């Protein structure tokens, strides 16, 4: 396993990590979660990602039960939670969502209870909140760190302007600013990481915990011949995810990528994940898996990165046609 420093912090994250979105509670039970987290940990993964909204809190409860049973040395792994959406779904009342001081504080306490932990290593603002002053957000996160409930705080799916505004406020008041962003990044989603955030990496040096390196499984090739039963795109309530990816000739491009992967003697999933972590601005790529075989194959991406020569990357760009056009200046 390779480990990378999270931006300019002293925290080291495994370049591949394990997340619970969609799979925990919806696709797998405690027994499988225990097996998958064990495989991840035994293969050097030290970061486990979660959020209040995943399975309406039940994902964190499941991960908490597994961590309690595993009894790993707490200093050997990193756990995150994220707040914004709330965990009550349609039953959310005012102040049970968003980034107010009240919700961020209460959501942090609830996450700690569900995960059965004394502190969160990483705590993310799961989306920007246009209705809450950025000063309130930065002050709240700073105070949670001072209270020992959180070690580092970050943002998820924020714009570059919003991230830099948080840093401006932190500098103005002598507070701890965000040190990590969790954006989506894969062969079909590249604009933020490869263009918008470049100045941020060069100035404040944010780490990144990227999600959906396989575009919710599309880049594994499993949807090339339709939608398998039990897959994410087949889950009730996830039609929006299917519609997000099955469009604009994406499946045809994935089929072309599969041909390239076969030439290289690797799986399409390994190729797609290896491509993500070949970007030096990616601290870690979060893997999601519901089966042992799936996770082990994805871990194989570590050995594929060296095959991604400039010529191979150019062929990939010619297939997907998603490389951002950078300003000439």
Explain what this protein looks like in three dimensions.
The structure is a single chain. This protein is α/β, with parallel strands linked by helices. It is built from 12 helices and 10 strands. An 8-stranded parallel β-barrel has the order 3-4-5-6-7-8-9-10, surrounded by 4 helices. A two-stranded antiparallel ribbon has the order 1-2. Helix 3 (101-115) links the parallel strand 5 and strand 6. Helix 2 crosses helix 3 (101-115). The protein is globular and about 55 Å long. The model has no long low-confidence stretch (mean pLDDT 93).
Which helices and strands appear, and what pairs or packs with what?
Layout: E1 3-5, E2 12-14, E3 16-19, H1 30-42, E4 47-49, H2 58-70, E5 78-83, H3 101-115, E6 120-125, H4 134-146, E7 150-155, H5 160-173, E8 180-181, H6 191-196, H7 198-203, E9 207-210, H8 239-245, H9 250-264, H10 268-277, E10 284-287, H11 292-299, H12 310-320
Parallel strand pairs: 3-4, 3-10, 4-5, 5-6, 6-7, 7-8, 8-9, 9-10
Antiparallel strand pairs: 1-2
Average pLDDT figure:
93
SSE pattern, N- to C-terminal: EEEHEHEHEHEHEHHEHHHEHH
Proportion of beta-strand residues: 5-15%
Distance between the termini: 37 Å
Percent helix: 25-40%
Largest sheet: 8 strands, parallel, barrel
Strand order of the largest sheet: 3-4-5-6-7-8-9-10
Using brief descriptors, characterize the structure shown:
329 residues; alpha/beta; 8-stranded parallel barrel; two-stranded antiparallel sheet; 12 helices; globular
């Amino acid at each position: 396993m390779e480990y990378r420093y999270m931006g300019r912090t002293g925290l080291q994250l495994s370049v591949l990590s394990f997340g619970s979105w969609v799979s925990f509670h919806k696709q797998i039970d405690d027994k499988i979660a225990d097996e998958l987290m064990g495989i991840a940990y035994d293969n050097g993964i030290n970061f486990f990602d979660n959020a209040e909204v995943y399975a309406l809190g039940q994902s964190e409860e499941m991960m908490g039960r597994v961590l309690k049973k595993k009894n790993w040395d707490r200093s050997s792994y990193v756990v995150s939670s994220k707040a914004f959406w709330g965990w009550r779904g349609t039953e959310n009342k005012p102040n049970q969502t968003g980034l107010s001081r009240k919700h961020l504080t209460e959501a942090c306490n609830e996450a700690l209870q569900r995960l059965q932990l004394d502190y969160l290593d990483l705590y993310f603002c799961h989306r920007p909140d246009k209705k809450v002053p950025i000063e309130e957000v930065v002050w709240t996160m700073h105070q949670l760190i001072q209270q020992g409930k959180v070690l580092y705080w970050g943002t998820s799916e924020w714009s570059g302007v919003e991230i830099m505004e948080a840093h401006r406020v932190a500098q103005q008041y002598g507070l701890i600013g965000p040190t990590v962003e969790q954006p989506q990044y894969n062969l079909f989603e590249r604009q933020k990481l490869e263009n918008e955030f470049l100045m941020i990496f060069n100035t404040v040096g944010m780490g990144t915990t990227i999600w959906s390196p396989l575009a919710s499984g599309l880049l594994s090739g499993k949807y090339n011949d339709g939608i398998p039963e039990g897959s994410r795109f087949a889950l009730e309530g996830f039609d929006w995810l299917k519609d997000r990816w099955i469009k604009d000739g994406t499946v045809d491009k994935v089929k072309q990528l599969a041909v390239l992967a076969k030439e290289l003697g690797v799986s399409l999933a390994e190729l797609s994940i290896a491509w993500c972590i070949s970007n030096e601005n990616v601290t870690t790529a979060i893997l999601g898996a519901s089966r042992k075989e799936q996770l082990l194959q994805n871990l194989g991406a570590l050995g594929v990165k060296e095959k991604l020569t400039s010529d191979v990357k150019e062929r990939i760009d010619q297939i997907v046609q998603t490389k951002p056009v950078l300003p000439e200046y």
